[in-house]
Amino acid sequence: MTFDLSQAQAVIVLAWRHLSCGRHQEASILFELLVKLMPASSELRLALANAQLGCGRPADAAATLSVLESSHDPVAHFLRGRALARLGHMDDARLAFNKYRECRKALP
């Protein structure tokens, strides 16, 4: 499936709208499609992981975020910590939250 730029932007807006309204399942479906179309977009991966957590799918969220493990984006580490904590991996979650705090301190 391919989209032109205006179609992709419309799907992005709809996905964010679903996420902001708490419709995590619908948002997850759209963000999964968008990540497949634009795999280099860390913003879309973060949104997908957030939607997956909202759907009660922490394992999927952790897998989505594994690509961003070396990122300096604090949100990636915060969401990863949440996913790992929900999976019961408390030591790994603690490390992710520590990385979150380090990245936050490094922000201007």
Automatic annotation (TrEMBL):
Taxonomic superkingdom: Bacteria
Protein name according to UniProt: Tetratricopeptide repeat protein
Organism this protein belongs to: Rhodoferax potami
